[in-house]
From TrEMBL:
Function: Component of the ribosome.
Protein name: 60S ribosomal protein L7a
Residues in coiled coil: 12-43
Any GO CC annotation of this UniProt entry: cytosolic large ribosomal subunit
Entries under PANTHER family matching the protein: RIBOSOMAL PROTEIN L7AE FAMILY MEMBER (PTHR23105)
Similarity-based family: Belongs to the eukaryotic ribosomal protein eL8 family.
Molecular function via GO: RNA binding
One Pfam family hit: Ribosomal_L7Ae
GO BP annotations, alphabetical order: maturation of LSU-rRNA
Length: 328
C-alpha cells in the first residue's frame, strides 16, 4: 500500500512539472507571435507566423491532455451520504423490518377505490339515470322551474322562520290537554288562544291558497310524481300568494314532524316576526311570482361528452371543406 502511494505521488509530481513547462512555453511563444504579427508587412512571413500559431495550439492540446491525466477527487452525492448515515444507525434486533407481500394468502390488501366495481342498489341507479335523462331530454318550463330552488342563505332564513311555527308534538299536546283538564276540574277559566302553526297536506294547502288565507307557500322540488304539485305555482301566481321552491321534501317534513311533506303553508304571523316576514315575502315575489322568465326557459338539452366531441369534429370538418372551396 505504501509503495503504491509513493508511485502515485511521483507520477503526480512528474505530470505537474511537464504541465508547468508547457504553460511557460505557450506563454512565451504567444507573446513573440503577437509582436511579429504587428511588425511584419509581407504576406508570406505572416503565413509562417500563423503556422507557428498552429503549433502552439497543438501544445495547448497536449497541455489539456496532461491536465486531464491528473487523478481527481471522487464526487460523493448526497444520496450516498444519506445511505451511509442510515447504515451507520444502530439496528434493533427486536424490530426487524419485513417487506409486505400482497399475494394471495399473505398480507392484508391496501385500501383501494372500488366504487367503479360496486353493485349499487336499484334506487341509486334509477336516481342517477333519472338525473342524466333530465339533463339530456328537453324539459318543459313548468317542470324546469322546480330546479330553481332558493340558495343556502335564503333557504336558511325561510326555514328558520317556519321552524318557529312548527306544530306541537304528541308529548306537548298531552301536556296541554292535561293542564286544561286540571283547570276544568278546579272550575277555573281557561284561556284557550288560537295556536298559530304551519299547515301541511296538499289538499289543505290548496284550499288555503284558493281562499287566499295562505300568506306564504313553500314547495319541495323533489316531489315524485311531479304532476302532484306541477299546477300549484301557477295557482299561487293567480291568487297572488308568495311561494318558493326548497330542497327537499324531507326538510319540510321535519318542520311538521312527518317523514316528508310536499308543501307547507303559513297562514298567520306573530307581531315580532312581521318585519322579517315582509322582507322575505317581497324578495320571493320578485324572484318567483313576478319572474316571467321561469315560465319561458326550457330545461335539459345538454349533450353528453362523447357526442359533444363528435359534433365538434363534424363542425371542424365542415369548416375545412369551406376553406378549401374558398381557396380554390
Amino acid at each position: 500500500m505504501f509503495k503504491k502511494r509513493l508511485t502515485i505521488q511521483i507520477q503526480i509530481l512528474e505530470l505537474n512539472s511537464v504541465i508547468q513547462q508547457l504553460q511557460e512555453r505557450i506563454q512565451s511563444q504567444k507573446s513573440k507571435l503577437n509582436y511579429e504579427l504587428k511588425i511584419l508587412k509581407n504576406e508570406n512571413d505572416k503565413y509562417i507566423v500563423l503556422y507557428k500559431y498552429y503549433l502552439i495550439q497543438k501544445d495547448i492540446q497536449w497541455y489539456l491532455i496532461y491536465s486531464n491525466l491528473q487523478p481527481k477527487a471522487p464526487k460523493t452525492s448526497k444520496a450516498k451520504k444519506l445511505q451511509k448515515k442510515v447504515a451507520d444507525r444502530k439496528k434493533n434486533p427486536l424490530f426487524v423490518k419485513d417487506a409486505k407481500n400482497f399475494r394471495i394468502g399473505n398480507d392484508v390488501q391496501p385500501k383501494r377505490d372500488l366504487s367503479r366495481y360496486v353493485r349499487w342498489p336499484r334506487y341509486i341507479l334509477l336516481h342517477r339515470q333519472k338525473k342524466i335523462l333530465l339533463q339530456r331530454i328537453k324539459v318543459p318550463a313548468a317542470i324546469h322551474q322546480f330546479s330553481k330552488t332558493l340558495d343556502k342563505n335564503q333557504s336558511s332564513k325561510v326555514l328558520g322562520l317556519l321552524k318557529k311555527y312548527s306544530p306541537e308534538t304528541k308529548t306537548e299536546k298531552k301536556q296541554r290537554l292535561t293542564k286544561l283538564a286540571e283547570q276544568k276540574a278546579q272550575a277555573q277559566k281557561s284561556e284557550s288562544k288560537k295556536v298559530q302553526v304551519l299547515k301541511f297536506g296538499l289538499n289543505h294547502v290548496t284550499t288555503l291558497v284558493e281562499t287566499k288565507k295562505a300568506k306564504l307557500v313553500v314547495i319541495a322540488y323533489d316531489v315524485d310524481p311531479i304532476e302532484l304539485v306541477v299546477w300549484l305555482p301557477q295557482l299561487c301566481r293567480r291568487q297572488e300568494v308568495p311561494f318558493c321552491f326548497v330542497k327537499n321534501k324531507a326538510r319540510l317534513g321535519s318542520l311538521v314532524h312527518q317523514k316528508t311533506a310536499t308543501c307547507v303553508a303559513l297562514t298567520e304571523v306573530r307581531k315580532e316576526d312581521q318585519a322579517e316576514f315582509d322582507n322575505l315575502a317581497r324578495d320571493l315575489r320578485q324572484h318567483y311570482n313576478e319572474n316571467h322568465e321561469l315560465l319561458r326557459t326550457i330545461g335539459g338539452g345538454q349533450v353528453g361528452i362523447k357526442s359533444r366531441h363528435q359534433q365538434e369534429a363534424i363542425k371542424k370538418a365542415f369548416e375545412l371543406e369551406e376553406l378549401k372551396k374558398t381557396s380554390q
